[in-house]
Write a structure and sequence with these properties.
This protein has 173 residues and is α/β, with parallel strands linked by helices. The protein has one domain: 3-Layer(aba) Sandwich (Glutaredoxin). 38% of the residues lie in helices and 17% in strands. It is built from 6 helices and 6 strands. Strands 1-4-3-2-5-6 form a 6-stranded mixed beta sheet. α3 packs parallel to α6.
Length: 173
């Protein structure tokens, strides 16, 4: 009897240990998509960030690291896309995978003063346990539709024209 109770207790503890409560967006029954919930992360730098403003927008999520030269080469494209489509319901979000986190990303974000938010990844994201899964290469970019579902993805530097066409298509829906 004691072993059975101990086994049940251990099972409950293990089940609850993997749970993380993420605040739901007010006014939506089931809350935001798992992809948008993965973006409930701290931000650094001068651009304000509120994850609750993402639902209903087309969101481009780019995973990067400050030491990644292709990632840095892609920044002007991301800035141009934000400038072109931001007023139409589009948002770029940069997610830093640097293991040093805020210590490295905060000075980076301040120096580059990007026109979109820079987020600091957590341990779950770095270990591939977010809705986006394991990020196989940098940069890796996901395009989310207005419902927060993946509508496109790129590994490596994404071309401006290809991404712009995909964004325009989603904005028209």
């Amino acid at each position: 009897m004691r072993r059975a109770a101990l086994a049940v207790g251990c099972a409950v503890v293990l089940a609850l240990a993997g749970c993380r409560r993420v605040p739901e967006e007010p006014g939506r029954g089931s809350g935001p998509s798992p992809y948008l919930r993965s973006l409930v992360l701290p931000s650094v730098g001068p651009t304000p960030y509120d994850w609750r403003r993402l639902p209903g927008r087309v969101v481009l999520v780019s995973f990067f690291a400050t030491w990644c030269f292709p990632c840095l080469a892609e920044l002007p494209t991301l800035e141009a896309l934000q400038k072109e489509y931001g007023s139409q319901g589009f948002q770029v979000v940069l997610v830093g995978l640097d293991l040093e986190g805020t210590r490295v990303l905060e000075p980076f974000a301040d120096q580059y003063a990007l026109n979109f938010p820079v987020l600091v990844s957590d341990e779950h994201t770095q270990q591939g346990r977010s809705a986006f899964g394991l990020i196989p290469s940098l940069p890796t970019t996901f395009l989310l539709d207005k419902e927060g579902q993946v509508a496109g993805a790129w590994q490596g530097v994404a071309g401006h024209a290809d991404v712009a066409r995909a964004v325009e298509k989603l904005l028209r829906r």
